């Protein structure tokens, strides 16, 4: 393609993959799956250098070009001068300046559902800030066949409400029906809700991992979902009879932060870190993490000993910011619940609140792993969450993809509004990196929350026609496989060979080229023709399918083997594999930082991982580990099913590494120790490098599995 105003650029292409790398991209080659596969298989890496023509970007003086597209272009409106009367009017609308005698109240109206059977419900309601209860209303009984309207009052001054405060509702009955609703009391413009609003309560699903606190669910998502599977829809109308009140804007907050004097955070800890070994900093950060985990646990929060640096942030470790913020919010929570509701108490509350903002502005960059503690439901403030997003921006794409499940969860579950820095970051990365976008698509496909549906529609709108068609082909592929699975299960076939014949017959009903698409597990791999003769059904409870494709870019020399599983929640596998990869990276990092005789052995513990892509709550694809053999198959190979025979694995290693010496079935190989002594009947041994590799791998998986409680 020729451009009128073009420049020739070099591009690196990975052979037999749809993966490219521009010379301007500062990302490591190791993030690409093709490079990882070549290193694991110890085969040659084939790369190509190609030339492309790109249109030049016009750059004005003192203007910085942003490589990421701006989905929500910011419109800067000119500031108009306001007169003195207007300024006084704005000051009277400030929420913190309201008198302490003005208490928060609202009116609710419950309407019956059309298809609901008569039942008595208990309505629970409360006001929460970051999982901390500010006020709990009395329980109310409601007959779901009648309309109920009631005004609820509190003893909570309206001036003590902070941005991020939630009004939580829950409906329960004796038939174990539960519904919940969380409403943010502030708009995205930091104005308190006023007027009337209608919501639909959300059914509590057993698959949702949300905590029940006094029958309420402050950990749940904000607003109403669009779950069509809910049999009964209960609507609630809320009315807030307040004038338009607002919180401080950014300019007013900046002026208040100037007057706050505070020592430089982590200054003492940073100086000690420079004088002593790095391990001292790791111990301090570990102490901060242990305190944070203990304080967030409802069972241990009152038993955790407070570190000395909570009162002096200058001696706090770098990763202690979440701990300090939670400590300040705990003080604010105690002051709000105190009986002294007066103007002086409100002033102290906002002094502590603004000191938290000042602390964030002065805090040095911390590890991005700790940023996730700033994005959960315990810290709903927008300023804190914006700081966490500013740290996550530094993540390269391969690490962003690694932590994408947690990032998406924070975006769809804990963001109070649709247009937030975190949601913008996720959408920008998804549009700029195809693998991130594909994973975002499959994650949000069946999400019914407000934020999830908006993000899903935005990505589909802006991803482009080519990517949209590829995702559509993958979606059609899953529908066809689900239909084949239903037809096979309907026949109630028990025999494995008959089931495989049925699978092959159903696969051949479609043309083999109709199965061509981009791999759901790797956007750089293009699945070619489906090799139906090599597909089969595994002899397990869920009867997963083994599917084999040609590599469309290298059809004669490479194949892609995937498992399609129906009936299991593969999200558990995704989380387990993510933690295993995290263990592997920590061990490798420590062996590089501390290269002594012992830790250097951990440089490579030979952990082999496979990829999993969940297409729904009960379906998903699994990449088959090449040349792998299960323990069960090894025992079957040696005509034994007992795990007491310890030599079976050793015998299998002998047969795999000594091709010239085949062990007869029922015989045992001779095991040679380091001194040369043998105590086995046959003269065969496993190379020492193979044994070391096997032992390291077993030790790594056993250690990681024990820590996870598997």
From TrEMBL:
Entry-linked InterPro entries: ARM-type_fold, Kinase-like_dom_sf, PI3/4_kinase, PI3/4_kinase_cat_dom, PI3K_accessory_dom, PI3K_accessory_sf, PI3K_Ras-bd_dom
Molecular-function GO terms, alphabetical: 1-phosphatidylinositol-3-kinase activity; 1-phosphatidylinositol-4-phosphate 3-kinase activity
GO biological process, one term: phosphatidylinositol 3-kinase/protein kinase B signal transduction
Domain PIK helical: 290-468
GO cellular component, one term: phosphatidylinositol 3-kinase complex
Classification via Pfam families: PI3_PI4_kinase, PI3Ka
UniProt domain PI3K/PI4K catalytic: residue ranges: 531-710
Domain PI3K-RBD: 1-51
Protein name: Uncharacterized protein
């Amino acid at each position: 393609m020729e451009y009128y105003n073009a420049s020739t650029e070099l591009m690196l292409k990975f052979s037999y993959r749809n993966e490219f790398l521009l010379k301007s991209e500062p990302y490591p080659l190791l993030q690409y799956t093709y490079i990882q596969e070549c290193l694991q298989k110890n085969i040659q890496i084939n790369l190509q250098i190609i030339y492309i023509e790109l249109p030049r970007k016009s750059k004005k003086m003192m203007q910085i070009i942003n490589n990421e597209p701006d989905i929500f272009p910011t419109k800067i409106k000119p500031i108009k001068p306001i007169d003195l009367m207007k300024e006084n009017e704005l000051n009277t609308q400030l929420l913190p300046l309201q008198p302490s005698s003005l208490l928060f109240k609202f009116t609710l109206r419950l309407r019956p559902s059309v298809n609901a059977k008569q039942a008595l419900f208990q309505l629970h309601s409360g006001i929460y800030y970051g999982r901390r209860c500010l006020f709990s209303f009395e329980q109310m009984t409601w007959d779901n066949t009648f309309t109920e309207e009631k005004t609820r009052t509190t003893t909570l001054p309206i001036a003590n409400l902070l941005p991020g405060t939630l009004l939580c509702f829950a409906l329960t009955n004796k038939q174990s029906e539960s519904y919940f609703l969380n409403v943010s009391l502030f708009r995205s413009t930091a104005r308190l809700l006023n007027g009337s609003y209608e919501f639909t309560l959300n059914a509590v699903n057993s698959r949702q991992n949300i905590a029940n606190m006094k029958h309420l669910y402050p950990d749940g998502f904000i607003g109403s979902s669009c779950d069509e599977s809910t049999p009964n829809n209960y609507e609630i109308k809320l009315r807030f009879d307040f004038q338009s009140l607002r919180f401080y804007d950014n300019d007013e907050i900046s002026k208040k932060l100037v007057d706050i004097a505070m020592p430089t955070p982590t200054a003492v800890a940073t100086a000690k870190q420079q004088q002593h070994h790095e391990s001292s900093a790791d111990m301090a950060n570990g102490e901060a993490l242990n305190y944070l985990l203990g304080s967030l646990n409802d069972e241990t929060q009152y038993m955790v000993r407070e570190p000395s640096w909570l009162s002096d942030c200058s001696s706090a470790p770098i990763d202690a910011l979440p701990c300090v913020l939670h400590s300040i919010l705990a003080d604010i929570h105690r002051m709000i619940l105190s009986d002294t509701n007066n103007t002086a108490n409100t002033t102290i509350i906002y002094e502590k609140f603004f000191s938290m903002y000042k602390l964030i502005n002065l805090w040095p960059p911390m590890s991005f792993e700790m940023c996730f503690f700033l994005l959960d439901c315990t810290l709903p403030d927008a300023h804190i969450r914006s700081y966490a997003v500013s740290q996550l921006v530094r993540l390269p794409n391969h690490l962003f993809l690694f932590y994408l499940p947690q990032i998406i969860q924070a975006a769809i579950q804990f963001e109070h509004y649709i247009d937030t820095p975190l949601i913008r970051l996720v959408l920008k990365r998804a549009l700029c990196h195809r693998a991130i976008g594909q994973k975002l698509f499959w994650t949000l496909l069946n999400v019914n929350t407000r934020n999830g549906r908006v993000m899903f529609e935005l990505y589909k709108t802006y991803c482009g026609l080519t990517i949209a068609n590829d995702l559509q082909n993958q979606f059609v592929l899953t529908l066809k496989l689900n239909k084949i699975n239903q037809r096979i299960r309907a026949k109630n076939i028990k025999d494995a060979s008959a089931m495989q014949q049925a699978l092959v017959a159903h696969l051949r009903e479609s043309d083999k080229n109709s199965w061509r698409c981009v791999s759901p597990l790797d956007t750089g791999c293009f699945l070619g023709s489906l090799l139906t003769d090599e597909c089969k059904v595994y002899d397990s409870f869920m009867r997963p399918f083994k599917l084999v494709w040609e590599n469309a870019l290298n059809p004669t020399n490479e194949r892609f083997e995937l498992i399609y599983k129906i009936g299991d929640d593969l999200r558990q596998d995704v989380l387990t594999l993510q933690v295993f990869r995290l263990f592997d990276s920590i061990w490798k990092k420590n062996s590089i930082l501390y290269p002594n005789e012992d830790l250097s052995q951990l440089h490579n513990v030979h952990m082999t991982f496979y990829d999993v892509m969940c297409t729904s709550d009960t379906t998903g694809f699994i990449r088959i580990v090449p040349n792998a053999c299960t323990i069960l198959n090894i025992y079957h190979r040696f005509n034994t099913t007992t795990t007491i025979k310890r030599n079976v694995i050793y015998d299998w290693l002998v047969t795999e590494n000594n091709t010239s010496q085949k062990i007869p079935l029922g015989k045992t190989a001779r095991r040679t120790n380091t001194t040369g002594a043998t105590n086995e009947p046959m003269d065969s041994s496993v190379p020492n490098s193979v044994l070391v590799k096997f032992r390291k791998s077993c030790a790594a998986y056993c250690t990681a599995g024990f820590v996870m409680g598997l």
